[in-house]
Amino acid sequence: MRLPTIRDVAREAGVGVGTVSRVLNNSPQVKPETRERVLDTIQQLGFRPNQLARQLSRGTRVRSLGVISPFISDHSFMARLKGVQRALAASDQDYDLVFYHVTTPERFEQRLLTILEQGSVEGLLLVVLEPTPQQRELLDETATVYVGINDHPIDDWPSVGSDNLIGGEAATRYLLELGHRRIAYVGDVFPKSHGFSASEIRYRGYAKALFEHNVPLNPDYVQMGDHGKDAAYTLTRNLLEMDAPPTAIFSMSDIQALGCLAAIRDAGLNVPGDISLIGFDDIEISQMIGLTTIRQHLEEAGHLAMNYLLRLLSDPSMNVAEKLEAVPQLPPFEVVERQTTRPLAA
Q1: CB-based burial of residue 341 (10 Å sphere; 0-12 exposed, 13-18 middle, 19+ buried)?
Q2: Which fold has domain 164-295?
Q3: SS3 state at 251
Q4: Which of 334, 338, 218 is nearest to 271 (CA)?
Q5: Per-residue confidence of the chain (346 residues) as pLDDT tens digits?
C-alpha cells in the first residue's frame, strides 16, 4: 500500500503543499483553523513526516543546498559543478551540497516533491531543467529558493544561461568564413524526454547561419543520435560515405567531437587537411587535443549561479522583479581556434 505524501495531505485538507510544509515547520504564518484542519488530515491519512521535518519543527536549520540535473556525470555538468564549488568555497556560508539525478520529467516531479516534503535543502540549483509553472508555484509556496543554469535565456524565473542559438550560429559562421559550404551538423536527437534542448537550439543556430549566407541546408548533412562519442563516431562515418561528404563538421559538443575525430582518422583522412572540425563547450580535454571549439563559460555559469543563489538566500525580501533584474550575465560565446580547422583549400 502506498504511503501518503505531503501532496495527499494538501489535497485532502484543501490547501497548498506550502501550507502543509509550514504546519510541519510550526510556522506562525498559518491560521489556527487551517493548522487544525491540516493536523487532522495528517492524523486521518496516517502521514508521517520524516525525522528531518521534525527537526525543522524544533527550529533546527538545514545547511544543505541541492543540485538537480539529468547529467551528473556529463563533462559539461562537471565543469559547471567546478564553478559551483568554487563559489561555495569562497563564501562564508557553511553549506553542504546534495546531488539529485533525474532522467525523466516524472522522476523530476517525484524528486521535487520528496525534497519539499522532507525540507532537506534551503535552496536548489536546477541544471538544464525547467520546472513547470505549477512546480515553480510549489517551490515558492514552500519558500524554497531556486536558481536555474540553462542553455537559453529565461525571463520569467531566476536562471543563468547563454543563448545557445547564438553559439550555434557562431560555430557555423566561423566555418563559413573559412570558405566551407558543405557543413554538417552532428548532435543529439531532439526533443529529449527530460527537456534538454541544447542540440535543438544549436541546430537552429546552424540553420540560421547557413540561411543568412545563402547556403542551402542539406538534410543529409544533419546527423543526430544518442549523446556520446560512440554515436558521433557512427554518425560521422555516415557522412564520410556520402558521394559529396562535408568539408567541415560542427559537433554539438566537444565529447561528440572526439567521436567525429576518431571516425575521420579511422577513414584515413586528416583533420583539418581533409575535413575541418569544430566542437562546443571548451571542456578541458579540448585543449589537450587541440580542438577548435566554442567556449560557453561552463565553469563561470556554475560560479555565477551559486553566488546568485547565495544572494537570494541572504535577502528573502527580494520580489520577483528584483530577482530577475539581479540575474547575472555570462560573458559572450567565444570561438577558440586551435588545430582542427583551417580555410578551405581553393
Answers
A1: buried
A2: Rossmann fold (3.40.50)
A3: strand
A4: 338
A5: 566 777 788 888 888 877 887 777 666 778 888 888 888 888 888 776 654 444 444 444 557 899 998 876 678 888 898 999 999 889 888 888 888 888 888 888 888 888 877 777 889 999 988 888 888 888 887 778 999 998 888 888 999 988 899 999 999 999 999 999 999 999 998 876 555 578 899 999 999 999 999 999 999 999 999 888 999 999 999 999 999 999 999 999 999 999 999 999 999 999 999 999 999 999 889 999 999 999 999 999 999 999 999 999 988 888 888 888 899 999 999 999 999 999 997 6
Residue (of 219, 232, 225, 222) closest to 189 by Cα position: 225
Residues of the chain with CATH 1.10.260.40: 1-60
Q: What stretch(es) of the chain map to CATH 3.40.50.2300?
A: 62-161+297-314, 164-295
Which helix (H) or strand (E) element contains residue 199? Answer: helix 198-212
CATH class of residue range 1-60: mainly alpha
**Longest distance between any two alpha carbons in the chain, whole Å:** 82
Question: Residue written as cell 547565495?
Answer: 310
Domain spanning 62-161+297-314, CATH class: alpha beta
In 3D, which of 254, 312, 252, 295 has the Cα closest to residue 125? 312
Say which residues have a Cβ less than 8 Å from residue 33's Cβ, sequence separation at least 6.
none
* Residue 237 in grid coordinates: 562515418
Q: Three-class SS of residue 153?
A: coil
Q: How far is CA 15 from CA 28, 74, 141, 188, in A?
A: 16, 39, 11, 42
Q: Write out the three cell numbers for 308.
A: 546568485
